Known about the structure:
The chain has 180 residues and is of the alpha/beta class. It has helices at 10-22, 39-55, 68-75, 82-100, 118-132, 145-155, 166-173; strands spanning 2-6, 26-31, 60-62, 105-108, 135-136.
Amino acid sequence: MNILLHICCGPCGLYPLHILREAGHAVTGFFYNHNIHPYQEYTHRLAAARDMAVQEVMPLLVRDDYDLEGFLSHVANKPHLRCSYCYASRLRATAAMAVENGFDAFSASLLYSRYQRHDEIRIVGEQAGEEFGVRFHYEDFRPGWQEGIRKSKAMGLYRQQYCGCIYSEKERYLPRKKES
């Protein structure tokens, strides 16, 4: 199959790319991450995705659409639902790009992270696939978590310290109060 792989960052794309190629699929990356905060973090992740694509000789499509305000307008009143919005917006954009460019299927490096909600990603991906008329390729890439980390470090790729949005940045860096 010819698969469009949504890539949230270079390090998370490595293992899925390897597994998909090993299975005989042609893979093109797609970077669309409109919610990354702050903008400097967004540019670091975009640069790392481009660097990974060059090193791995993988075509990379980029939708360079930084839209912090749009992201916040969708999640500010219900920040606990931010991941659901994030999954849906990025997977729908990937499905649309897959159809526009004639791909057989699409997938996501979100499926590599042990911190993401796989059941929800699968459901949202399948819904986006049905909506746009393209197959969502679900595969659990989590078994390669350590291999992806090792390889990304060996390649010298920028490695982020939090998922990406302003809320996850807060959760990562805000000191937590000790329970009494």
